[in-house]
Amino acid sequence: MMRVLWSTTKFYFWLTPSDSVSTILQNQIKFMFKKILIANRGEIALRIIRTCREMGIKTVAVYSTADRDSLHVRFADEAVCIGPPASAQSYLNIQRLLAAVEITNADAIHPGYGFLSENAQFAEICTQYGVKFIGPTPAQIRKMGDKITAKETMIAAGVPVVPGSGGLLKDVVSGKRIAADIGYPVILKATAGGGGKGMRIVLEEQQFENQWNTARAEAKASFGNDGIYIEKYVEEPRHIEFQVAGDRFGTVCHLSERDCSIQRRHQKLVEESPSPFMTPELREEMGNAAVKAAQYINYEGVGTIEFLVDKHRNFYFMEMNTRIQVEHPVTEEVIDYDLIKEQIKIAAGIPISGKNYYPEMWAMECRINAEDPFNDFRPHPGKITSLHTPKGHGVRVDTHVYSGYTVPPYYDSMIAKLICRARTREECITKMERSLDEFIIEGIKTTVPFHQRLMRNENFRKGNFHTGFLNTWDFKKEL
Length: 479
Hints:
By secondary structure, this protein is an alpha+beta fold. The protein contains 16 helices and 24 strands. The strands form seven sheets. An eight-stranded antiparallel β-sheet has the order 15-14-11-12-13-16-23-21, sandwiched between helices. The protein has a five-stranded parallel β-sheet with strand order 5-4-3-6-7, with helices on both faces.
């Protein structure tokens, strides 16, 4: 049986779970999307456009007036201006996005990462409107998007979690009591948080009230929600995440790990796969936990289960990202797997194989941001007067910028991702060094010099680092 979703302008046909796998495979071309609107900008929008073109799917780019000269606008089949530079009036404006869907006759929306990619209300509205949201269901986003709900869900699933409050803190007094029970240091976290906002480490009771007030104020300003919970602070942790994929038929697999421990203020700067901290036994255990987590919520789409791993290799669930991630090319390079293509196929009702994947190569990604690393990483928008990107075997650059492009000041400062692949970690770092030396960007300041120094750091090369590594290393003094 086929289920028909009615729209004011067209019919949409989605296969129900009762359809046989063979029927779906026979009809996958027939029922594949004809046109996808990309509700995002820049590098990720261009990345999605490339895969869609290879799949024979038309694309629609949306853009603010600040992004009219971005490459994603140029290479899409159609482009629609949806407003002025402010995100609230363009990329976060659901009404304008749906208007763009209507006038272009798109039958699916890919949200990319950031913006509305983990917004359950947006996913729900898309469903009601009759356009397919390429991602998990609204219920799955809600279950894993709120960190307290996600933690409770993982406890029920039997996945290890960091000891903590088990719910939102009511006040300072109850927070101090819980902190005393689990032991300092602790970390306060915004339940609606992300990107390190609304997070504060508390080393002793005397600091608690001040950090509590600061975390709540930042959470309220960033997310409109000042709910705070508390966890035991894992000292010298690794941030290791597992890529997962699941289809509507209940099949889930993992695509191994990425180590994202090189961070600044909880913002990832470098990611790699496999993790130099990983053992085969730990990979198997963490991979099984990631699959269990996704299976428990009947996850549909690609996503990431993120863990903190302490220096004794004990691991704890931290959060789930129900979207494609910035660092997804690292996984693609080590297992030769197009994750954007897989997202689209899953959304179209095509089943996955269910096979777990393991790294066959070593890959590393450096995020190139329009920031001045020697001035506290201050954003540095402006016109790129000259650009030369590195090339060669095993070198990939994902970017939407070019010589003459003006980096706008309104959005995230990342302008490119440099990804290198090799047989071993040592070879990968050497290739990354060479590629960074070839990466010439003039007219603005970027994080290229920071990455060059990191690649030469002895502890980094040996794999001796954790999420607090940049707090202990003064890269400005390293020649």
